[in-house]
What does this fold into?
Amino acid sequence: MAVQEPVHRFPTHLERQFELLYERYVTRLAAGTLPRLERQYKKDVRPTTDDIWDEINKLEDGIAGRKDPATRGKLVSYGGTMVPASMRDEIVGVVDKVNEFTILRLATQLRKLGKVGLVQRPQQLIVSLADETPAIRRALESAAELNANLITTTRAEFLDQIGVLTEEAVSKGLSPQALAKQYQHLTGVTKSRAKFWARDQVGKMLGNFNQIRQQEAGFPGYIWVTSRDARVRPDHAWRHGRYFEWAGPGLKPGEDFNCRCEPEAAFGREQQLSRQQWERDINVMNRDRRKIAKRRKVEPVLLDVQQLQELARAGA
It folds into this structure.
């Protein structure tokens, strides 16, 4: 039997959309704060440490909408968190799209299970997926609120860090040009961290939404399905194709950082991958690892089937 190509079920388009949303926020945050600090730092009389932190506090007041709402435009409270109104709407929009993606994926799984007789009247279940149950509503609201909090955390950390940078520049007598480079580096680091959070949140939303919908549809468990590419970690690779109970202990798909694994609705272990198919899928993951290693001109770090089987026995 020919080795199958990886089937990517992860909504990379939504992940990228969320990354851009977070990145744009950091860009706007930097554009709204750094010029003011740079102008103050370039004054003939260098500011004192107290001056710098007074300016940081003023910026925070303005961004939070307490003294100068026009600084950042209209802001609204979402779950007790102050975020730009436009961004709040974008966050909710992405959360809704992840929810819609979850519905489409589960509908596909239900049709497949219906064809082999494991699900009776799959179309009725598919229609019911559109219902916004109390559990789903809470999950949607929680996801939006969490991301609003992450945005607020990003803002607070960024302002605090540029305050520390500026304070050190004052004490060391750095030139405005040197400080500007430090600002630029910090902005880049903040963007990278924000994008990491965005990617991580899409995976966690998918995992949570999937669990709620599958349990509400009557599935006691799921088959763990990886993206079958070079990014699959050993701790996820041994789980690939295996059946797990939703109520059981241990890691769930989407819970780990930047996890792109998917839970396929299942009723029991009889739906697990065969040993032969599992090994073929591991070979596909290793083939992808070899390609990337060759492109980077480094030695590939391959998944070891025997080690993975030992992990599976330990985790069973």
Remarks:
- The chain has nine helices and five strands.
- The longest strand covers residues 221-225.
